[in-house]
TrEMBL record:
It comes from Rehmannia glutinosa. Residues 486-653 form the Protein kinase domain. Keywords: Disulfide bond, EGF-like domain, Glycoprotein, Signal. It catalyses: L-threonyl-[protein] + ATP = O-phospho-L-threonyl-[protein] + ADP + H(+); L-seryl-[protein] + ATP = O-phospho-L-seryl-[protein] + ADP + H(+). This is non-specific serine/threonine protein kinase. Residues 293-329 form the EGF-like domain. Its EC number is 2.7.11.1. Residues 348-430 form the Apple domain. Residues 38-158 form the Bulb-type lectin domain. The lineage of its organism: Eukaryota, Viridiplantae, Streptophyta, Embryophyta, Tracheophyta.
């Protein structure tokens, strides 16, 4: 089944540290190879196994290789720095069984691979190619077959990729002809034959990248908004920039990346995972900087129609508000494929959207929007609402400034709850459902909560309300039990905000609980400031806020637990184990991580943040010594065009 017959496509690029694709990296080269010291094959040159040609700057080679745990030989392109890393295979479906093969330019001008029995095993197969051609390997990893007379490229390997996407390659979809360029996984780590998974671009309506499993959607990137793929959480950080989707001639739309100053590749491995890796020249290995899918919620449609997935919850699937499991028995067994159904039918009238009898819209924040969006160009979110509310078949809408309106009229499929990033999704519900929701809101008005001087929170292009229910709410009893009634044995430290305790939840998860002290001199302003800031940010070098507690006079913030405490302990406490473990390599990594976090806060986050209280005690370290900037009670949020500001009070240490 082709990707179009399966109804979708894929391709992607991003990051996550420390993971290596060991399974598909074992591609060995048992024979010594001799470089012909050229980057070009002409009709007068015969490339014999195991000889190679090398690109002009010594970046890539074309030659023969044998995958690990195999005796078959293949013609392929691989890195000079890592000859076991193959990025393209010519005869992936027709292996050679000995080392007597050759490569040359045929009389028809094609590049051909000939086995020991003088049989053509593989060819560029250009029927209209000129007689006089040359094959060149470029420093991008692309093989190009050129017409010597005109200099025109008549064939290139980048138009026929294997399992790897490289910078300057184009993964494309022609919306008129259906012709696609996709990457396709190996069958397994020892066999480059095309496997079950493909990845490419689905350009109809709003472009998205897909991974397909035998033609069926397996992972989806969410729509391209001109800057990022809005369903890829890591693209909201600065690490996944540089990619673009281009509308080319005659209906062809392609996904690409500019030529890089370092080795970067995106591989679709045999288990259906896209991995972006960067070459670490010092350690001589590949670092995985992003992968997809990352968890079960990333797998397409895990929770079925009208279900929402959140990998931080248990169970991970829940029905959208106003819906209930379509099959309660299956749902209880953890089979969510049947999804959910609406509890109360829509009346197709606008009525009172806050609880009257008519239909209204419920706002869901930080969402991966569903698949099958219909596109309507508009700069105003109100136009999306009007267009959806006046169309009885419209059941949800979302607005992105660069896309415009996204409307849905059928099932809502592949919905996911993100943490601090993502789109606002408005789903259509009956008035009775919206009325139930309104009774339970805890809303703080920013203007009422904070003073109006220059230290007040400035939320440009953001809601002026903070809904505490957007964060998981912990009860006082739960946190008291988790910390053994805030016992001093669980005290991790004290700051300006108040004491911080280690806690263990009933499910075994370790947490850190920051409890506002009445004597701290800080109050609701700092508490709400931290809630606003951290709930809207997501970065690997910022501490993650798990939830909060607001009961009577108690105000607490719940964070991920950092077993290596704060940086000041590591630097200044002679009894801390870091005095032995904190070598220069770890110190440099911590410095670099703090810099990444600050760069994100100052330049690349959806809010522009100045921390104003950065010090060693506010840098926490996880079990792998990764630094996490914390304590945003004093932070200042700048407007999008603001680059300086004044404060009316002293802040920080």
């Amino acid at each position: 089944m082709s990707p179009r017959e399966g109804g979708r496509k894929i391709v992607t690029i991003l990051k996550i540290d420390g993971v290596r694709d060991e399974k598909d990296e074992k591609r060995a080269f048992p024979r010594f190879s001799l470089s012909l010291e050229t980057d070009t094959i002409t009709s007068s040159i015969i490339l014999r196994d195991p000889d190679t040609i090398v690109s002009s700057r010594q970046a890539y080679k074309l030659g023969f290789f044998t995958p690990g745990n195999s005796t078959n030989r293949y013609l392929g392109v691989f890195y000079t720095v890592s000859e076991t890393t193959v990025i393209w295979v010519a005869n992936r479906d027709n292996p050679l069984n000995d080392t007597s093969s050759t490569v040359t330019i045929s009389e028809t001008g094609n590049l051909i691979l000939i086995n020991g029995r003088n049989q053509t095993v593989w060819s560029t197969n250009i029927t209209t190619s000129p007689m006089n051609t040359t094959l060149q390997i470029q420093d991008t990893g692309n093989l190009i077959l050129n017409d010597v007379v005109t200099g025109n490229t008549i064939w290139q390997s980048f138009s026929h990729p294997s399992d790897v996407f490289l910078p300057t390659m184009r993964i494309s979809d022609n919306i008129n002809t259906g012709e696609k360029v996709v990457v396709s996984a190996w069958r397994n780590g020892s066999d480059p034959e095309m496997g079950s998974f493909t990845a490419g671009l689905e350009a109809l309506n709003i472009p998205q990248i897909f991974i397909w499993n035998n033609g069926r959607p397996y992972w989806r990137s969410g729509p391209w908004n001109g800057q990022i793929l809005i369903g890829v959480q890591d693209m909201y950080s600065p690490y996944l920039d540089g990619f673009s989707v281009v509308n080319d001639r005659a209906g062809t739309i392609y996904f690409t990346a500019p030529e890089a100053r370092f080795f970067m590749r995106i591989t679709l491995n045999s288990t259906g995972t896209l991995l972006q890796t960067l070459w670490d020249d010092q350690r001589r290995n590949w670092d995985v900087t992003w992968l997809a899918p990352q968890n079960e919620c990333d797998v397409y449609g895990t929770c079925g129609p009208f279900g929402s997935c959140n990998f931080r919850d248990s169970p991970i699937c829940s029905c959208l508000r106003g819906f209930e499991p379509a099959n309660t028995e299956e749902w209880g067994r953890g089979n969510w494929s049947s999804g959910c159904r609406r509890r109360n039918e829509l009346r197709c009238d606008q009525g009172n959207s806050t609880g009257g009898n008519g239909d209204g819209f419920l706002r869901l924040q930080f969402m991966k929007v569903p698949d099958f969006a219909e596109h309507f160009s508009s700069r105003q979110e109100d136009e999306c609402r009007t267009r959806c509310s006046t169309n009885c078949s419209c059941i949800a809408y979302s607005h992105d400034p660069n896309i415009g309106c996204m409307l849905w009229s059928e099932s809502l499929v592949d919905v996911q709850q993100f943490a601090g990033v993502g789109a606002d999704l408005y789903i259509r519900l009956s008035g009775s459902e919206l009325g139930q929701k309104a009774k339970n809101k805890k809303v703080f008005e920013a203007g009422q909560t904070f003073s109006s001087d220059s230290t007040a929170i400035v939320l440009k292009d953001e809601s002026e309300k903070v809904n505490i229910e957007e964060l998981p709410l912990f009860s006082f009893e739960t946190l008291a039990n988790a910390t053994d009634q805030f016992h001093e044995n669980n005290l991790l430290g004290k700051g300006g905000f108040g004491p911080v305790y280690k806690g263990n939840l009933a499910n075994g998860k370790e947490i850190a609980v920051k409890r506002l002290s009445a004597a701290s001199g800080q109050g609701m302003e700092e508490f709400m400031n931290e809630v606003i800031v951290i709930s809207k940010l997501q970065h690997r070098n910022l501490v993650r806020l798990l939830g909060c507690c607001v009961e009577k006079e108690e105000k607490m913030l719940i964070y991920e637990y950092m077993p290596n405490k704060s940086l000041d302990f590591c630097l200044f406490d002679p009894t801390h184990p870091s005095q032995k473990d904190l070598d220069w390599k770890k110190r440099f990594s911590i410095i670099e991580g703090i810099g990444r976090g600050l760069l994100y806060l100052h330049r690349d986050s959806r809010l522009r943040i100045i921390h104003r209280d950065l010090k060693p005690s506010n840098v926490l370290l996880d079990e792998d010594w990764n630094p996490k900037i914390s304590d945003f009670g004093m932070a200042r949020i700048f407007g999008g065009n603001q680059d300086h500001g004044n404060t009316a009070r002293v802040v920080g240490t």
